[in-house]
Design a protein that fits this description.
By secondary structure, the protein is an alpha+beta fold. The strands form 2 sheets. A 6-stranded mixed sheet has the order 1-8-7-6-3-4. A two-stranded antiparallel sheet has the order 2-5. Strand 7 and strand 8 form a beta hairpin. It starts with a helix and ends with a helix.
Protein backbone atom coordinates (compact mmCIF):
# COMPACT_ATOMS: atom_id res chain seq x y z
CA UNK A 1 0.00 0.00 0.00
CA UNK A 2 2.86 2.39 0.68
CA UNK A 3 3.98 2.15 -2.95
CA UNK A 4 0.46 2.91 -4.15
CA UNK A 5 0.18 5.85 -1.74
CA UNK A 6 3.51 7.24 -2.95
CA UNK A 7 2.50 6.92 -6.59
CA UNK A 8 -0.87 8.56 -5.88
CA UNK A 9 0.91 11.51 -4.19
CA UNK A 10 2.90 11.96 -7.42
CA UNK A 11 -0.32 12.18 -9.45
CA UNK A 12 -0.20 8.68 -10.93
CA UNK A 13 -3.74 7.44 -11.70
CA UNK A 14 -5.05 4.79 -9.28
CA UNK A 15 -8.26 2.86 -9.94
CA UNK A 16 -9.87 0.71 -7.26
CA UNK A 17 -12.88 -1.39 -8.31
CA UNK A 18 -15.18 -3.17 -5.85
CA UNK A 19 -12.98 -4.32 -2.95
CA UNK A 20 -10.32 -2.01 -4.40
CA UNK A 21 -12.65 0.91 -3.57
CA UNK A 22 -12.95 -0.42 -0.03
CA UNK A 23 -9.15 -0.72 0.28
CA UNK A 24 -8.65 2.85 -0.99
CA UNK A 25 -11.01 4.18 1.69
CA UNK A 26 -9.39 2.08 4.42
CA UNK A 27 -5.94 3.28 3.33
CA UNK A 28 -7.06 6.92 3.52
CA UNK A 29 -6.64 7.55 -0.22
CA UNK A 30 -10.37 8.22 -0.55
CA UNK A 31 -12.84 9.69 1.93
CA UNK A 32 -15.73 7.73 3.40
CA UNK A 33 -16.19 4.06 4.15
CA UNK A 34 -17.85 0.99 2.72
CA UNK A 35 -20.51 -0.76 4.78
CA UNK A 36 -22.60 -3.90 4.31
CA UNK A 37 -25.31 -3.62 1.68
CA UNK A 38 -28.51 -2.24 3.17
CA UNK A 39 -30.34 -5.56 2.57
CA UNK A 40 -27.40 -7.44 4.15
CA UNK A 41 -27.19 -9.68 1.08
CA UNK A 42 -24.67 -10.21 -1.69
CA UNK A 43 -25.77 -8.42 -4.85
CA UNK A 44 -24.83 -9.57 -8.35
CA UNK A 45 -26.63 -7.83 -11.21
CA UNK A 46 -26.48 -5.06 -13.74
CA UNK A 47 -27.13 -1.48 -12.66
CA UNK A 48 -27.38 1.88 -14.39
CA UNK A 49 -24.81 4.57 -13.65
CA UNK A 50 -25.06 8.28 -14.28
CA UNK A 51 -21.82 10.04 -15.15
CA UNK A 52 -21.96 12.85 -12.58
CA UNK A 53 -18.61 14.36 -13.51
CA UNK A 54 -17.36 13.85 -17.06
CA UNK A 55 -14.37 16.13 -16.47
CA UNK A 56 -12.02 13.66 -14.83
CA UNK A 57 -9.16 11.57 -16.18
CA UNK A 58 -11.42 8.56 -15.63
CA UNK A 59 -14.61 9.84 -17.25
CA UNK A 60 -13.66 12.20 -20.09
CA UNK A 61 -14.85 9.74 -22.76
CA UNK A 62 -18.40 9.98 -21.43
CA UNK A 63 -20.91 12.81 -21.66
CA UNK A 64 -22.05 14.68 -18.54
CA UNK A 65 -25.13 12.90 -17.08
CA UNK A 66 -24.81 10.01 -19.56
CA UNK A 67 -26.43 6.80 -18.34
CA UNK A 68 -24.35 3.66 -18.77
CA UNK A 69 -24.86 0.01 -17.87
CA UNK A 70 -22.46 -1.68 -15.47
CA UNK A 71 -22.44 -4.93 -13.48
CA UNK A 72 -22.02 -5.11 -9.71
CA UNK A 73 -21.09 -8.05 -7.48
CA UNK A 74 -20.54 -7.21 -3.81
CA UNK A 75 -21.64 -7.58 -0.21
CA UNK A 76 -20.00 -4.50 1.31
CA UNK A 77 -20.74 -1.84 -1.29
CA UNK A 78 -22.77 0.67 0.71
CA UNK A 79 -20.78 3.93 0.52
CA UNK A 80 -21.09 6.11 3.60
CA UNK A 81 -19.56 9.41 4.68
CA UNK A 82 -20.38 11.83 7.47
CA UNK A 83 -22.32 14.95 6.48
CA UNK A 84 -19.24 17.23 6.36
CA UNK A 85 -17.25 14.79 4.19
CA UNK A 86 -20.26 14.22 1.97
CA UNK A 87 -20.76 17.96 1.49
CA UNK A 88 -17.06 18.37 0.60
CA UNK A 89 -17.00 15.62 -2.03
CA UNK A 90 -20.26 16.87 -3.54
CA UNK A 91 -19.06 20.50 -3.67
CA UNK A 92 -15.65 19.53 -5.08
CA UNK A 93 -17.13 17.46 -7.92
CA UNK A 94 -15.53 14.28 -6.61
CA UNK A 95 -18.61 12.15 -7.27
CA UNK A 96 -17.93 10.68 -10.70
CA UNK A 97 -20.62 7.97 -10.88
CA UNK A 98 -24.04 7.61 -9.26
CA UNK A 99 -26.50 4.76 -9.39
CA UNK A 100 -29.28 5.86 -11.72
CA UNK A 101 -32.88 4.99 -12.47
CA UNK A 102 -33.52 3.49 -9.03
CA UNK A 103 -30.85 0.79 -9.46
CA UNK A 104 -28.87 1.54 -6.26
CA UNK A 105 -28.14 -2.03 -5.15
CA UNK A 106 -26.66 -1.35 -1.73
CA UNK A 107 -28.08 1.79 -0.10
CA UNK A 108 -25.11 4.06 -0.84
CA UNK A 109 -25.72 7.59 0.37
CA UNK A 110 -26.72 9.97 -2.45
CA UNK A 111 -26.61 6.98 -4.83
CA UNK A 112 -22.81 7.30 -4.93
CA UNK A 113 -21.15 4.57 -6.99
CA UNK A 114 -17.71 6.13 -7.56
CA UNK A 115 -15.62 9.02 -6.24
CA UNK A 116 -12.19 10.54 -6.71
CA UNK A 117 -9.78 12.01 -4.24
CA UNK A 118 -9.48 15.82 -4.11
CA UNK A 119 -6.61 15.76 -6.63
CA UNK A 120 -8.71 13.71 -9.07
CA UNK A 121 -6.13 11.00 -9.75
CA UNK A 122 -7.58 8.25 -7.50
CA UNK A 123 -10.95 6.75 -8.40
CA UNK A 124 -12.80 4.19 -6.34
CA UNK A 125 -15.98 2.64 -7.67
CA UNK A 126 -18.08 -0.31 -6.61
CA UNK A 127 -19.40 -1.40 -10.05
CA UNK A 128 -17.21 -3.46 -12.38
CA UNK A 129 -16.62 -1.54 -15.64
CA UNK A 130 -13.99 -4.10 -16.69
CA UNK A 131 -16.78 -6.66 -17.09
CA UNK A 132 -18.53 -4.65 -19.80
CA UNK A 133 -15.85 -3.51 -22.25
CA UNK A 134 -16.46 -5.65 -25.36
CA UNK A 135 -19.57 -6.39 -27.35
CA UNK A 136 -19.13 -10.11 -26.73
CA UNK A 137 -19.42 -9.29 -22.99
CA UNK A 138 -22.87 -7.89 -23.74
CA UNK A 139 -21.81 -4.29 -24.34
CA UNK A 140 -18.98 -1.84 -23.98
CA UNK A 141 -20.31 0.81 -21.60
CA UNK A 142 -17.40 0.32 -19.17
CA UNK A 143 -14.77 0.86 -21.86
CA UNK A 144 -14.95 4.66 -21.55
CA UNK A 145 -13.14 4.60 -18.21
CA UNK A 146 -10.13 2.88 -19.74
CA UNK A 147 -10.24 5.02 -22.88
CA UNK A 148 -10.32 8.10 -20.67
CA UNK A 149 -7.26 6.91 -18.76
CA UNK A 150 -5.38 6.17 -21.96
CA UNK A 151 -6.23 9.63 -23.28
CA UNK A 152 -5.09 11.27 -20.02
CA UNK A 153 -1.79 9.39 -20.14
CA UNK A 154 -1.21 10.46 -23.73
CA UNK A 155 -1.78 14.11 -22.75
CA UNK A 156 0.62 13.81 -19.80
CA UNK A 157 3.28 12.23 -22.02
CA UNK A 158 3.06 15.03 -24.60
Amino acid sequence: MEAIKNHAKKGVPVLGVCNGFQILTEAGLLPGAMMRNSALKFVCREVKLQVSNANTMFSSHYQQNQIIRCPVAHHDGNFFADSKTLANIEENGQVVFRYAENTNPNGSVNDIAGITNAAGNVLGMMPHPENLIEDFHGGSDGKGIFESLLGANRLNAA
